[in-house]
Every structure is written in C-alpha cells, then in structure tokens.
Amino acid sequence: MSVITLFSGIFCNEEAIVRDVVDSTGHRLITDDMVIAGASELSGIKESKIKKAFSSKTSVFNKFTHEKECSIAYLRLALARMLDHESIIVSGYSGLLIPETISHVLRVCLIAETAFRLALAKKERQLSENEATRVISLEDHDRSVWTDTLFSIKDPWDSTLYDIVLPMGKTGPGKAGALIEENLLKEAVRRTDDSKAAVNDFLLVANTEVALVNAGHNVAVQAKKGAVVLTINKQVLMLSRLEDELKSIAGKVAGVVSVDTRVGQTYHQSHIYRKHDFEVPSKVLLVDDEREFVQTLSERLQMRDMGSAVAYDGKSALDLVRDDEPEVMIIDLKMPGIDGMEILKEVKQTRPEIEVIVLTGHGSEKDRKKCMDLGAFAYMQKPVDINLLSETLKKAHEKFKAGE
Fold first, then answer.
1. CATH class of the domain whose range is 284-403
2. pLDDT at 270 over 70
3. Which of 100, 120, 378, 384 could serve as a FRET partner for 163 with CA atoms 20 to 30 Å apart?
4. For 3-189, CATH number?
C-alpha cells in the first residue's frame, strides 16, 4: 500500500483523523518523536537537540556549527530507513522530508480558519482567546520556517506541497478520514518499480548527507540509481579544492556509483561557504558591556575560525545559555545589572559543563581566587594577547568535549 504523510496546523483535529485512518487502513503510525528517537540513536545527539530542528528559532551559533543541518540530515536518514515498511502514515513535520520523487506517497494537509482553531483550543485546553491566539501564532511560525527551510516556501499550507488540503472547519474528522482513504486507492499513489527505486535513492541521499555533515560540510544532495549530485549554494575561495573533498567523502558511501558537483542558483550571492571544524571552539559566548571591545574580539576569533556570539549584559547572556547552549564563555566581571561574578555562579550551578573564562580589566587577586573557587576555567586580565586567549579557548573547548 501507499505511504501517507499528514501535516497539520495545531487545533485542526489531527489526532482524531490519524486514529481514524490507522484504525481503518492498518497503517503503522510514525510520529515526529519516533523519527527524532531514530535520528538520536544513529547520531548520538540528544533527542532534545534534534527536536530543535523543527523550531523556528535557530541557534546563534548555527552558522558555525551547522547543528540544524546536521539534525535534519539524521532525521532524513532515520525516516528513510522507516520507509521500507509497506504501509505507514507519517504524522507531523517529518513527512515533508520525503522527496516528491517517491510517488507512492499521499501528501495530506489539514488546516482551518482561525475562528475554528480558536474554538477548538478553548474546548481542548481551556485556553483564553489571547492565549490560544498566541499558541497558534507560534506554532504556525514554526511550520512556516520548516517549509521555508525545506522548499523556500513560507506558507506552510501552500497547496503545491500536498496532494490534498482538507479545510477542517468544513470537514469533520470522520469525513476527512474517509477522503484520505478514498485518495489512497487512486492509481497515482500506487507503488511502482520506479517509486520503490526512489526510496533507495532517498536512503542514499540521506547516507551521503550524513557522511558530509559529519565531515563538517553542508551541501544539497541528489541521487538517482547510484549517481550522486552535490550542489554548492555558497561561495568558496577555492571551489575546485572543495569539490575534490566533497567527491572524496561522498564517493566512499556504500551504493554511490558516481559523484558530480555543481554550483546552485544562490552561489553568487554574498553568503560564504563555511566548513565546520570540530577541533576548534564554535560555540563561544562573549559577555561584555564594552560593545566596541567585544565586537572586535568576536571578529578576531572568527578570523581564527572560532564561532562566537555576543551578549552585552548578564540577562541576555543567561538567556543565551538557556536557549543556545554555548560550550565556552568569556565574561567580564564589571557590568551593570547582573555582573560577571553572578553569571559565573549561575552558570556553574545550572550548566556546570560550560567552561567559563573570566577576562577583566578591573579585577583583583581576591576576585581571581573567588572566580577560580566558583569553577572558572581561567582568569585573565585585559588587555589580553589574542594568541594566548585563543590557546586558552582551545584548551577550555577540549575540556568541554572530554566531559560530554
């Protein structure tokens, strides 16, 4: 039988429809949580981190780490392995990862007018209208960023992404289930030899993507009967060298017969291709209220291929610690509001694995001792030699990695 993917707006009766279709067809249900668990098992990355790939909020460090792209690659691989099962329904974000070339997939979207969704939110969760509006808006934004990431389409309900779009304000769960089952029988979504071959191509794409991201690369991958095409979408100084490296990595993937490279439509825009180097710090958070100093320091670290982000006050720094999970921090002591000592204390209480380097122009020997007692990795004075700071950062990063 065919595969069903079901992508839905929140408060559109998705769960009831999924239950109805599973009961009626006997399809095995694949949820986002199941795909995330599979991706986590394959990659060794925590499920909580992989789940962030579905969020509209991208880490400030992502341009250095490619964490989102890495998570998506492993999600593809986990899902591609699940497509061997004859009859499945993939409910959630994951189904949109299945390429159009796999024709035996019935792609379904559930959406409804805002008034219907607000009423259902009040009934199901007892939310006020303001609360329901906020939840719907946030969830829709996540879905918009997801379709934009995958297809450069910001409207998650764009009909070109689906075979059928069901208006749930006008269609009850029972009728919606019946319509899905009716379309499932159509010749257009029957399994064929070509569509089965496309599943194998999808698996090869996923395996190739994983091999590339594990080597620090982020390029688009296509495959057909073992012939792999890699598309480079960002400018690079030595294109031929990059092409040779990509071909060498992809050529070693089981099932790859040939590898070709090309530049994409966005190659000549201002974006610069950046390979992730796993050996250097790429999630460094700089915290200092001296804006010119800290911005210059960030630029100097990036010139050394170290990924850094900047916070100008203690509250912003702690928010970034919570949301973006830096590996190493460089903090000043004297700042208005939450000062560096308080940041150090809070970080070491809540995220002790983060290594913290204190860099200050106002500290004393007493401050140095207190910082080290609180768990600081190093205590340094301004002005600092950039080479010495770089070496200290690398050592802190090595300690962080050793403790993972």
1. alpha beta
2. no
3. 120
4. 3.40.50.300
